[in-house]
Amino acid sequence: DSGVTQTPKHLITATGQRVTLRCSPRSGDLSVYWYQQSLDQGLQFLIQYYNGEERAKGNILERFSAQQFPDLHSELNLSSLELGDSALYFCASSVGEGGTDTQYFGPGTRLTVL
Amino acid sequence: LAKTTQPISMDSYEGQEVNITCSHNNIATNDYITWYQQFPSQGPRFIIQGYKTKVTNEVASLFIPADRKSSTLSLPRVSLSDTAVYYCLVGDLFKAAGNKLTFGGGTRVLVKP
């Protein structure tokens, strides 16, 4: 158990809909990262927040947005969903924001868009 | 971006040593090398990190030559439970991790009985 929690575990929805994925980082961690992993694909970095502020952006679509709240939990919002958005979405956290900080990953949310 | 290149897959047998090499020709002075392990449908897990020469912990060793353009993860005496995907990452000590976060396809290691 990494200490990172993600809800829900599974989500099934239809094209065109909007969903929100939630992540609670490990106690004491200030950075939160979001990743997308499609079937048999590597991890695609989406976005990083540190102490409430956006720190880095990866391959995040304009239909996707995220935020980190004062209590440090984070939400990833996915809108106008397409079939291709079906994937595992992982959240990770780290103490700091730097590239040498160990990231602790949550169990993921499996999103299925029908 | 410091791009990394790893073999797509490797097969091994129980009890053998597995060595996975990652190339990172454009590694910068402040970059560290980190390896993660991922089992199916689970999030990756930190294995080891290093800057140069050799680092060893309870699960693996990491060898980094003097020019740091590559690194080799060594898993001693693998078991069936070591079957997983292994990712090599290069990250800057002083910059936000997201600036260089490219996990790539990783190396799929299959340990056979």
Give a description of the structure:
Chain A has 114 residues and is mainly beta. Chain A is built from no helices and eleven strands. In chain A, the strands form two sheets. In chain A, strands 2, 4, 5, 6, 9, 10 and 11 form a seven-stranded mixed β-sheet that branches. Chain A is globular, with a radius of gyration of 13 Å. The termini of chain A are far apart. The mean pLDDT of chain A is 94. By secondary structure, chain B is mostly beta strands. Chain B has a five-stranded mixed β-sheet with strand order 1-9-8-3-4, with no helix packed on it. In chain B, strands 2-7-6-5 form a four-stranded antiparallel β-sheet, with no helix packed on it. In chain B, β6 and β7 form a beta hairpin. The mean pLDDT of chain B is 91. The chains are: A mainly beta (114), B mainly beta (113). At the A-B interface, β4, β5, β6, β9 and β10 of A face β3, β4 and β8 of B.
Describe what is shown at a glance.
Helix content of chain A is 0%, strand content 50%. Chain A is an all-beta fold and 114 residues long. In chain A, the strands form two sheets. In chain A, strands 2, 4, 5, 6, 9, 10 and 11 form a seven-stranded mixed beta sheet that branches.
Write the layout of secondary structure elements.
The complex is a heterodimer of chains A (114) and B (113).
Chain A: E1 5-7, E2 10-13, E3 19-24, E4 31-37, E5 44-50, E6 53-57, E7 64-68, E8 74-78, E9 87-94, E10 104-105, E11 109-113
Parallel strand pairs in A: 2-11
Antiparallel strand pairs in A: 1-3, 3-8, 4-5, 4-9, 5-6, 7-8, 9-10, 9-11
Chain B: E1 9-13, E2 18-23, E3 31-38, E4 45-50, E5 53-56, E6 61-64, E7 70-75, E8 84-92, E9 107-112
Parallel strand pairs in B: 1-9
Antiparallel strand pairs in B: 2-7, 3-4, 3-8, 5-6, 6-7, 8-9
The 3D shape of chain A can be described as globular
SSE pattern of chain A: EEEEEEEEEEE
Helical residues, percent of chain B: under 10%
Instruction: Work out the strand percent of chain B.
Output: over 45%
Number of helices of chain A: 0
Helix/strand order of chain B: EEEEEEEEE
Name the quaternary structure. Answer: heterodimer
**How many helical elements of chain B?**
0
Structural class of chain B: mainly beta
The number of strands of chain A is: 11
> How far from one another are the termini of chain B?
39 Å
What Rg of chain B, in angstroms, do the CA atoms define? 14 Å
User: Based on CA inertia axes, which overall geometry of chain B fits?
Assistant: globular
* Tally of strands of chain B: 9
What is the largest interface, and how many residues per chain?
Answer: A-B, 34 and 30 residues
| Uncertain runs of chain B | none
Termini separation of chain A (Å)?
Answer: 31 Å
